[in-house]
Amino acid sequence: QEYYPRTGRWFEARAYPSEEGLAVYFRDITQRKRAQEEIEFLALYDPLTQLPNRRLLTDRLQHALATQGRSGRYGAVLFLDLDNFKTLNDTLGHETGDKLLQEAARRLTEALRQSDTVARFGGDEFVVVLADLDGVAAAAALQAEAVADKILAVLTRPYQLGEHQRHMTVSIGITLFGSADDSVDDLMQRVDLAMYQAKDAGRGTTRVYSPEMRASMQARVRLEAELREGLERGEITAHYQPQFDMAGRLIGAEALARWQHPRRGVVGPGEFISAAEESGLILALGETVLREACARLADWAARLPAADFSVAVNVSARQFHHPGFVEQVRRALEETRAAPQALRLELTESLLLADLDDTVARMDQLKSIGVRFSLDDFGTGYSSLAYLKRLPLDQLKIDRVFVRDAVSNPNDAAIVRTIILLAESMGLGVIAEGVETEAERAMLEEYGCGALQGYLLGAPVPAGEFQHFLPDGGGSVPPHSL
Questions:
Q1: CA 224 from chain center: how many Å?
Q2: Which residues contact residue 21 at a Cβ distance below 8 angstroms, ignoring those fewer than 6 apart?
Q3: Is the pTM value of this prediction over 0.70?
Q4: 282-303 average pLDDT score
Q5: Among residues 86, 134, 133, 130, which one has the least CA distance to residue 108?
Protein backbone atom coordinates (compact mmCIF):
# COMPACT_ATOMS: atom_id res chain seq x y z
CA GLN A 1 0.00 0.00 0.00
CA GLU A 2 1.35 3.42 -0.91
CA TYR A 3 0.13 6.98 -0.62
CA TYR A 4 0.58 9.38 -3.55
CA PRO A 5 0.58 12.95 -2.21
CA ARG A 6 0.25 14.56 -5.64
CA THR A 7 -3.14 12.93 -6.14
CA GLY A 8 -4.06 12.57 -2.49
CA ARG A 9 -4.95 8.92 -3.02
CA TRP A 10 -3.93 5.48 -1.76
CA PHE A 11 -3.14 2.53 -4.05
CA GLU A 12 -2.59 -1.12 -3.34
CA ALA A 13 -0.23 -3.10 -5.55
CA ARG A 14 -0.37 -6.87 -5.92
CA ALA A 15 1.99 -8.99 -8.05
CA TYR A 16 0.97 -12.28 -9.68
CA PRO A 17 3.05 -14.71 -11.84
CA SER A 18 2.02 -14.79 -15.51
CA GLU A 19 3.21 -16.32 -18.80
CA GLU A 20 5.00 -13.08 -19.62
CA GLY A 21 6.68 -12.93 -16.20
CA LEU A 22 5.16 -10.95 -13.36
CA ALA A 23 1.84 -9.09 -13.56
CA VAL A 24 1.34 -6.15 -11.21
CA TYR A 25 -2.17 -4.89 -10.48
CA PHE A 26 -2.89 -1.49 -8.90
CA ARG A 27 -6.15 -0.82 -7.05
CA ASP A 28 -7.38 2.51 -5.67
CA ILE A 29 -8.11 1.93 -1.96
CA THR A 30 -8.52 5.60 -0.96
CA GLN A 31 -12.13 5.19 0.25
CA ARG A 32 -11.24 2.15 2.32
CA LYS A 33 -8.27 3.93 3.93
CA ARG A 34 -10.35 7.01 4.73
CA ALA A 35 -13.07 4.87 6.29
CA GLN A 36 -10.43 3.07 8.36
CA GLU A 37 -8.91 6.38 9.48
CA GLU A 38 -12.35 7.70 10.45
CA ILE A 39 -13.06 4.60 12.51
CA GLU A 40 -9.71 4.98 14.27
CA PHE A 41 -10.41 8.70 14.86
CA LEU A 42 -13.88 8.08 16.28
CA ALA A 43 -12.45 5.48 18.63
CA LEU A 44 -10.19 8.09 20.25
CA TYR A 45 -11.65 11.53 19.52
CA ASP A 46 -14.93 13.34 20.03
CA PRO A 47 -16.46 14.05 16.60
CA LEU A 48 -18.15 17.29 17.71
CA THR A 49 -15.19 19.11 19.27
CA GLN A 50 -12.30 17.11 17.74
CA LEU A 51 -10.88 16.75 21.26
CA PRO A 52 -9.65 13.46 22.76
CA ASN A 53 -12.52 11.40 24.14
CA ARG A 54 -12.75 9.55 27.44
CA ARG A 55 -10.85 6.52 26.14
CA LEU A 56 -7.85 8.53 24.93
CA LEU A 57 -7.99 10.65 28.09
CA THR A 58 -7.62 7.50 30.18
CA ASP A 59 -4.57 6.42 28.17
CA ARG A 60 -2.93 9.81 28.54
CA LEU A 61 -3.71 9.96 32.27
CA GLN A 62 -2.11 6.56 32.78
CA HIS A 63 0.97 7.75 30.92
CA ALA A 64 1.06 10.98 32.95
CA LEU A 65 0.79 9.04 36.22
CA ALA A 66 3.77 6.88 35.28
CA THR A 67 5.81 9.87 34.11
CA GLN A 68 5.15 12.10 37.12
CA GLY A 69 5.81 9.23 39.50
CA ARG A 70 9.34 8.90 38.12
CA SER A 71 10.07 12.64 37.85
CA GLY A 72 9.17 13.57 41.42
CA ARG A 73 7.04 16.43 40.14
CA TYR A 74 3.29 16.86 40.42
CA GLY A 75 0.64 16.94 37.74
CA ALA A 76 -2.98 18.05 38.01
CA VAL A 77 -6.36 17.11 36.64
CA LEU A 78 -9.03 19.80 36.14
CA PHE A 79 -12.67 18.80 35.72
CA LEU A 80 -14.80 21.51 34.01
CA ASP A 81 -18.59 21.63 33.94
CA LEU A 82 -20.46 24.38 32.08
CA ASP A 83 -23.06 25.79 34.48
CA ASN A 84 -26.71 25.72 33.39
CA PHE A 85 -25.82 24.26 30.00
CA LYS A 86 -28.91 22.04 30.03
CA THR A 87 -31.14 25.11 30.32
CA LEU A 88 -29.52 26.63 27.24
CA ASN A 89 -29.75 23.33 25.36
CA ASP A 90 -33.43 22.89 26.23
CA THR A 91 -34.44 26.44 25.36
CA LEU A 92 -32.30 27.25 22.31
CA GLY A 93 -31.97 23.73 20.91
CA HIS A 94 -29.22 21.15 20.58
CA GLU A 95 -27.71 22.76 17.50
CA THR A 96 -27.03 25.95 19.45
CA GLY A 97 -25.73 23.90 22.37
CA ASP A 98 -23.33 22.10 20.02
CA LYS A 99 -22.00 25.42 18.72
CA LEU A 100 -21.32 26.57 22.26
CA LEU A 101 -19.45 23.33 23.04
CA GLN A 102 -17.34 23.71 19.91
CA GLU A 103 -16.47 27.30 20.81
CA ALA A 104 -15.63 26.31 24.40
CA ALA A 105 -13.35 23.54 23.08
CA ARG A 106 -11.58 25.99 20.77
CA ARG A 107 -11.02 28.50 23.57
CA LEU A 108 -9.67 25.78 25.87
CA THR A 109 -7.24 24.49 23.28
CA GLU A 110 -5.90 27.97 22.56
CA ALA A 111 -5.52 28.81 26.26
CA LEU A 112 -3.35 25.82 27.20
CA ARG A 113 0.09 24.50 26.36
CA GLN A 114 0.61 21.88 23.65
CA SER A 115 1.90 19.52 26.32
CA ASP A 116 -1.41 19.72 28.19
CA THR A 117 -4.29 17.41 27.37
CA VAL A 118 -7.78 18.82 26.82
CA ALA A 119 -10.52 16.19 26.47
CA ARG A 120 -14.28 16.16 26.23
CA PHE A 121 -15.41 13.88 29.03
CA GLY A 122 -19.05 13.85 27.95
CA GLY A 123 -22.00 16.22 27.59
CA ASP A 124 -20.90 19.65 28.81
CA GLU A 125 -17.92 18.30 30.77
CA PHE A 126 -14.25 18.74 29.86
CA VAL A 127 -11.07 17.44 31.49
CA VAL A 128 -7.65 19.09 31.40
CA VAL A 129 -4.47 17.24 32.36
CA LEU A 130 -1.50 19.41 33.36
CA ALA A 131 1.97 17.85 33.53
CA ASP A 132 5.33 18.96 34.94
CA LEU A 133 4.13 21.18 37.75
CA ASP A 134 6.24 22.01 40.79
CA GLY A 135 7.73 19.29 42.99
CA VAL A 136 6.17 20.87 46.11
CA ALA A 137 2.44 20.14 46.46
CA ALA A 138 1.46 23.63 47.67
CA ALA A 139 3.27 25.31 44.79
CA ALA A 140 1.84 22.84 42.27
CA ALA A 141 -1.67 23.56 43.57
CA LEU A 142 -1.13 27.29 43.05
CA GLN A 143 0.06 26.65 39.49
CA ALA A 144 -3.02 24.54 38.76
CA GLU A 145 -5.30 27.20 40.25
CA ALA A 146 -3.66 29.84 38.06
CA VAL A 147 -4.46 27.76 34.98
CA ALA A 148 -8.03 27.29 36.23
CA ASP A 149 -8.40 31.06 36.65
CA LYS A 150 -7.21 31.54 33.07
CA ILE A 151 -9.78 28.99 31.89
CA LEU A 152 -12.52 30.77 33.83
CA ALA A 153 -11.59 34.02 32.12
CA VAL A 154 -11.70 32.63 28.57
CA LEU A 155 -14.82 30.50 29.00
CA THR A 156 -16.91 33.23 30.62
CA ARG A 157 -16.48 35.68 27.75
CA PRO A 158 -19.79 36.18 25.87
CA TYR A 159 -20.72 33.59 23.24
CA GLN A 160 -22.28 34.75 19.99
CA LEU A 161 -24.54 31.87 18.97
CA GLY A 162 -26.24 32.99 15.77
CA GLU A 163 -28.68 35.72 16.76
CA HIS A 164 -28.24 34.99 20.45
CA GLN A 165 -25.50 36.22 22.74
CA ARG A 166 -25.08 34.20 25.91
CA HIS A 167 -22.94 34.40 29.03
CA MET A 168 -21.82 31.13 30.58
CA THR A 169 -20.00 30.28 33.78
CA VAL A 170 -17.98 27.17 34.49
CA SER A 171 -17.31 25.22 37.70
CA ILE A 172 -13.85 23.66 37.98
CA GLY A 173 -12.56 20.94 40.29
CA ILE A 174 -8.81 20.40 40.72
CA THR A 175 -6.78 17.50 42.11
CA LEU A 176 -3.04 16.89 42.11
CA PHE A 177 -1.33 13.61 41.26
CA GLY A 178 2.20 12.32 41.69
CA SER A 179 1.89 9.65 44.35
CA ALA A 180 2.62 6.02 43.52
CA ASP A 181 -0.79 5.13 44.96
CA ASP A 182 -2.74 7.31 42.50
CA SER A 183 -4.92 5.63 39.88
CA VAL A 184 -7.06 7.01 37.08
CA ASP A 185 -10.28 6.04 38.89
CA ASP A 186 -9.14 7.70 42.12
CA LEU A 187 -8.19 10.88 40.28
CA MET A 188 -11.52 11.12 38.51
CA GLN A 189 -13.48 10.54 41.71
CA ARG A 190 -11.49 13.21 43.54
CA VAL A 191 -11.69 15.83 40.82
CA ASP A 192 -15.41 15.16 40.37
CA LEU A 193 -15.97 15.81 44.08
CA ALA A 194 -13.97 19.03 43.84
CA MET A 195 -16.04 20.19 40.86
CA TYR A 196 -19.30 19.67 42.76
CA GLN A 197 -17.86 21.63 45.66
CA ALA A 198 -17.25 24.47 43.21
CA LYS A 199 -20.90 24.28 42.12
CA ASP A 200 -22.05 24.33 45.74
CA ALA A 201 -19.92 27.42 46.33
CA GLY A 202 -22.08 29.33 43.86
CA ARG A 203 -20.80 28.12 40.45
CA GLY A 204 -18.38 30.00 38.27
CA THR A 205 -15.50 29.18 40.61
CA THR A 206 -12.80 26.58 41.39
CA ARG A 207 -12.09 24.19 44.24
CA VAL A 208 -9.03 22.04 44.99
CA TYR A 209 -9.74 18.54 46.31
CA SER A 210 -9.25 17.84 50.01
CA PRO A 211 -10.05 14.62 51.94
CA GLU A 212 -12.84 16.44 53.80
CA MET A 213 -14.74 16.73 50.52
CA ARG A 214 -15.42 12.99 50.41
CA ALA A 215 -17.13 13.05 53.80
CA SER A 216 -19.12 16.10 52.69
CA MET A 217 -20.26 14.38 49.50
CA GLN A 218 -21.32 11.26 51.38
CA ALA A 219 -23.42 13.46 53.64
CA ARG A 220 -24.87 15.12 50.53
CA VAL A 221 -25.88 11.76 49.06
CA ARG A 222 -27.63 10.85 52.32
CA LEU A 223 -29.39 14.23 52.34
CA GLU A 224 -30.68 13.75 48.78
CA ALA A 225 -32.00 10.28 49.67
CA GLU A 226 -33.77 11.64 52.77
CA LEU A 227 -35.18 14.57 50.80
CA ARG A 228 -36.56 12.25 48.14
CA GLU A 229 -38.26 10.19 50.84
CA GLY A 230 -39.47 13.38 52.53
CA LEU A 231 -41.16 14.55 49.32
CA GLU A 232 -42.87 11.19 48.97
CA ARG A 233 -44.09 11.35 52.58
CA GLY A 234 -45.37 14.91 52.25
CA GLU A 235 -42.81 16.44 54.65
CA ILE A 236 -42.17 19.49 52.44
CA THR A 237 -44.46 22.36 53.27
CA ALA A 238 -44.40 26.16 53.33
CA HIS A 239 -44.16 28.80 56.02
CA TYR A 240 -45.52 32.26 55.31
CA GLN A 241 -43.91 35.59 56.15
CA PRO A 242 -46.35 38.52 56.21
CA GLN A 243 -45.87 41.62 54.07
CA PHE A 244 -47.25 45.03 55.07
CA ASP A 245 -47.65 48.45 53.54
CA MET A 246 -46.39 51.51 55.39
CA ALA A 247 -49.74 52.00 57.08
CA GLY A 248 -49.48 48.57 58.74
CA ARG A 249 -52.04 46.92 56.45
CA LEU A 250 -51.42 43.28 55.55
CA ILE A 251 -50.95 43.11 51.77
CA GLY A 252 -49.40 39.73 51.21
CA ALA A 253 -47.17 36.88 52.27
CA GLU A 254 -44.10 35.11 50.95
CA ALA A 255 -44.25 31.31 50.85
CA LEU A 256 -40.94 29.85 52.05
CA ALA A 257 -40.14 26.14 51.74
CA ARG A 258 -39.66 24.17 54.95
CA TRP A 259 -38.87 20.51 55.56
CA GLN A 260 -40.67 18.95 58.51
CA HIS A 261 -37.95 16.38 59.18
CA PRO A 262 -39.02 13.42 61.35
CA ARG A 263 -35.89 13.64 63.54
CA ARG A 264 -34.50 17.16 63.11
CA GLY A 265 -37.74 19.09 63.22
CA VAL A 266 -38.24 22.09 60.93
CA VAL A 267 -35.33 22.43 58.47
CA GLY A 268 -34.81 25.72 56.61
CA PRO A 269 -34.20 25.93 52.85
CA GLY A 270 -30.54 26.83 53.28
CA GLU A 271 -29.87 23.21 54.23
CA PHE A 272 -31.65 21.43 51.38
CA ILE A 273 -32.41 23.70 48.40
CA SER A 274 -28.92 23.32 46.94
CA ALA A 275 -29.20 19.52 47.12
CA ALA A 276 -32.64 19.71 45.53
CA GLU A 277 -31.27 21.81 42.67
CA GLU A 278 -28.38 19.44 41.92
CA SER A 279 -30.48 16.27 42.13
CA GLY A 280 -33.43 17.60 40.11
CA LEU A 281 -35.75 17.26 43.11
CA ILE A 282 -36.30 21.03 42.92
CA LEU A 283 -38.96 20.40 40.26
CA ALA A 284 -41.13 18.28 42.56
CA LEU A 285 -40.32 20.47 45.56
CA GLY A 286 -41.17 23.67 43.70
CA GLU A 287 -44.47 22.27 42.47
CA THR A 288 -45.35 21.18 46.02
CA VAL A 289 -44.79 24.68 47.44
CA LEU A 290 -46.58 26.32 44.49
CA ARG A 291 -49.71 24.16 44.89
CA GLU A 292 -49.82 24.68 48.64
CA ALA A 293 -49.41 28.44 48.24
CA CYS A 294 -52.25 28.56 45.72
CA ALA A 295 -54.48 26.53 48.05
CA ARG A 296 -53.77 28.90 50.95
CA LEU A 297 -54.33 31.89 48.69
CA ALA A 298 -57.77 30.62 47.72
CA ASP A 299 -58.63 30.01 51.37
CA TRP A 300 -57.47 33.44 52.57
CA ALA A 301 -59.06 35.33 49.67
CA ALA A 302 -62.46 35.07 51.37
CA ARG A 303 -61.16 37.30 54.14
CA LEU A 304 -58.74 39.45 52.12
CA PRO A 305 -59.84 40.41 48.58
CA ALA A 306 -57.40 39.18 45.93
CA ALA A 307 -56.96 42.73 44.67
CA ASP A 308 -55.48 43.69 48.04
CA PHE A 309 -53.55 40.55 48.95
CA SER A 310 -51.02 38.33 47.17
CA VAL A 311 -48.82 35.34 47.94
CA ALA A 312 -45.27 35.35 46.59
CA VAL A 313 -43.61 32.06 45.59
CA ASN A 314 -39.90 31.73 44.82
CA VAL A 315 -39.12 30.00 41.52
CA SER A 316 -35.76 28.44 40.69
CA ALA A 317 -34.15 28.73 37.27
CA ARG A 318 -34.45 25.01 36.64
CA GLN A 319 -38.13 25.07 37.58
CA PHE A 320 -38.97 28.18 35.57
CA HIS A 321 -37.30 26.97 32.36
CA HIS A 322 -38.80 23.49 32.58
CA PRO A 323 -41.00 22.91 29.49
CA GLY A 324 -44.10 22.22 31.59
CA PHE A 325 -43.80 25.11 34.05
CA VAL A 326 -46.40 27.46 32.54
CA GLU A 327 -48.96 24.66 32.38
CA GLN A 328 -48.03 23.66 35.93
CA VAL A 329 -48.92 27.15 37.20
CA ARG A 330 -52.17 27.19 35.22
CA ARG A 331 -53.17 23.81 36.61
CA ALA A 332 -52.36 24.79 40.21
CA LEU A 333 -54.49 27.94 39.91
CA GLU A 334 -57.41 26.12 38.29
CA GLU A 335 -57.46 23.19 40.69
CA THR A 336 -57.23 25.36 43.80
CA ARG A 337 -59.47 28.12 42.36
CA ALA A 338 -56.96 30.74 43.44
CA ALA A 339 -57.10 34.14 41.76
CA PRO A 340 -54.19 34.41 39.28
CA GLN A 341 -53.71 38.14 39.98
CA ALA A 342 -53.07 37.29 43.64
CA LEU A 343 -50.16 34.97 42.79
CA ARG A 344 -46.76 36.67 42.61
CA LEU A 345 -43.82 34.67 41.28
CA GLU A 346 -40.42 35.81 42.56
CA LEU A 347 -37.61 35.47 40.03
CA THR A 348 -33.87 36.08 40.48
CA GLU A 349 -31.57 37.92 38.10
CA SER A 350 -29.51 34.78 37.41
CA LEU A 351 -32.69 33.05 36.27
CA LEU A 352 -33.49 35.87 33.86
CA LEU A 353 -30.05 35.97 32.29
CA ALA A 354 -29.94 32.23 31.54
CA ASP A 355 -32.10 32.90 28.48
CA LEU A 356 -33.74 36.29 28.34
CA ASP A 357 -35.87 35.57 25.26
CA ASP A 358 -37.35 32.41 26.75
CA THR A 359 -37.84 34.14 30.10
CA VAL A 360 -39.80 37.02 28.55
CA ALA A 361 -41.94 34.62 26.51
CA ARG A 362 -42.85 32.56 29.58
CA MET A 363 -43.53 35.65 31.66
CA ASP A 364 -45.84 36.99 28.92
CA GLN A 365 -47.75 33.70 28.87
CA LEU A 366 -48.33 33.85 32.62
CA LYS A 367 -49.06 37.58 32.60
CA SER A 368 -51.83 36.90 30.07
CA ILE A 369 -53.72 34.91 32.72
CA GLY A 370 -53.09 37.50 35.45
CA VAL A 371 -50.00 36.21 37.31
CA ARG A 372 -47.68 38.95 38.60
CA PHE A 373 -43.89 39.00 38.96
CA SER A 374 -41.39 40.31 41.46
CA LEU A 375 -37.63 40.56 40.85
CA ASP A 376 -36.03 39.13 43.98
CA ASP A 377 -32.71 40.24 45.51
CA PHE A 378 -32.56 43.23 43.19
CA GLY A 379 -29.19 44.96 43.20
CA THR A 380 -27.10 41.92 44.15
CA GLY A 381 -26.58 40.65 40.59
CA TYR A 382 -26.15 42.31 37.20
CA SER A 383 -29.00 44.82 37.61
CA SER A 384 -28.77 45.75 33.94
CA LEU A 385 -31.34 48.23 32.70
CA ALA A 386 -30.95 46.68 29.24
CA TYR A 387 -32.78 43.55 30.36
CA LEU A 388 -34.89 45.19 33.06
CA LYS A 389 -36.82 47.29 30.53
CA ARG A 390 -37.79 44.16 28.56
CA LEU A 391 -39.29 42.28 31.48
CA PRO A 392 -43.00 42.45 32.32
CA LEU A 393 -42.33 42.95 36.03
CA ASP A 394 -44.68 44.29 38.68
CA GLN A 395 -42.32 44.74 41.60
CA LEU A 396 -38.67 45.08 42.64
CA LYS A 397 -37.52 43.56 45.93
CA ILE A 398 -34.70 45.26 47.83
CA ASP A 399 -32.30 42.66 49.19
CA ARG A 400 -31.73 42.42 52.92
CA VAL A 401 -27.99 43.08 52.55
CA PHE A 402 -28.76 46.68 51.56
CA VAL A 403 -31.54 47.10 54.13
CA ARG A 404 -29.31 45.82 56.94
CA ASP A 405 -26.48 48.26 56.31
CA ALA A 406 -28.33 51.26 54.89
CA VAL A 407 -28.80 52.91 58.30
CA SER A 408 -25.04 53.04 58.94
CA ASN A 409 -23.53 52.93 55.44
CA PRO A 410 -24.16 55.87 53.07
CA ASN A 411 -23.36 53.73 50.02
CA ASP A 412 -26.04 51.16 50.91
CA ALA A 413 -28.46 53.98 51.69
CA ALA A 414 -27.80 55.45 48.25
CA ILE A 415 -28.48 52.05 46.63
CA VAL A 416 -31.78 51.71 48.49
CA ARG A 417 -32.89 55.21 47.44
CA THR A 418 -31.87 54.51 43.83
CA ILE A 419 -33.84 51.26 43.67
CA ILE A 420 -36.94 52.97 45.06
CA LEU A 421 -36.65 55.84 42.56
CA LEU A 422 -36.00 53.41 39.70
CA ALA A 423 -39.08 51.37 40.58
CA GLU A 424 -41.19 54.52 40.81
CA SER A 425 -39.95 55.80 37.43
CA MET A 426 -40.78 52.45 35.77
CA GLY A 427 -44.20 52.18 37.37
CA LEU A 428 -43.21 49.22 39.53
CA GLY A 429 -43.98 48.46 43.13
CA VAL A 430 -41.11 48.04 45.57
CA ILE A 431 -40.78 45.98 48.75
CA ALA A 432 -37.87 45.70 51.17
CA GLU A 433 -37.07 42.39 52.84
CA GLY A 434 -35.15 41.66 56.01
CA VAL A 435 -36.47 44.64 58.00
CA GLU A 436 -35.43 43.92 61.58
CA THR A 437 -35.19 47.27 63.38
CA GLU A 438 -37.35 50.34 63.81
CA ALA A 439 -34.50 52.46 62.42
CA GLU A 440 -34.55 50.46 59.19
CA ARG A 441 -38.34 50.79 58.92
CA ALA A 442 -38.19 54.55 59.49
CA MET A 443 -35.45 54.99 56.90
CA LEU A 444 -37.42 53.03 54.28
CA GLU A 445 -40.54 55.08 54.99
CA GLU A 446 -38.51 58.28 54.55
CA TYR A 447 -37.19 57.07 51.19
CA GLY A 448 -40.69 56.22 49.96
CA CYS A 449 -40.57 52.41 50.04
CA GLY A 450 -44.07 51.03 49.54
CA ALA A 451 -43.98 47.71 51.43
CA LEU A 452 -41.96 45.78 53.99
CA GLN A 453 -41.30 42.31 55.32
CA GLY A 454 -38.94 41.07 58.02
CA TYR A 455 -38.68 39.88 61.60
CA LEU A 456 -39.63 43.32 62.94
CA LEU A 457 -43.03 42.79 61.36
CA GLY A 458 -43.42 39.04 61.55
CA ALA A 459 -41.37 35.86 61.18
CA PRO A 460 -42.23 33.09 58.72
CA VAL A 461 -44.85 30.87 60.36
CA PRO A 462 -46.91 27.79 59.40
CA ALA A 463 -50.16 28.45 57.58
CA GLY A 464 -52.19 27.79 60.73
CA GLU A 465 -50.36 30.48 62.66
CA PHE A 466 -50.51 32.91 59.75
CA GLN A 467 -54.27 33.07 60.32
CA HIS A 468 -53.54 35.45 63.22
CA PHE A 469 -52.37 38.11 60.77
CA LEU A 470 -55.71 38.05 58.93
CA PRO A 471 -58.41 40.57 59.90
CA ASP A 472 -60.70 38.00 61.47
CA GLY A 473 -57.80 36.16 63.09
CA GLY A 474 -56.41 38.91 65.25
CA GLY A 475 -56.11 42.03 63.11
CA SER A 476 -53.99 43.43 60.33
CA VAL A 477 -51.46 45.25 62.49
CA PRO A 478 -48.18 43.31 62.87
CA PRO A 479 -46.64 42.46 66.26
CA HIS A 480 -44.44 45.56 66.12
CA SER A 481 -46.78 48.45 65.42
CA LEU A 482 -45.93 50.58 62.44
A1: 17
A2: none
A3: no
A4: 92
A5: 130
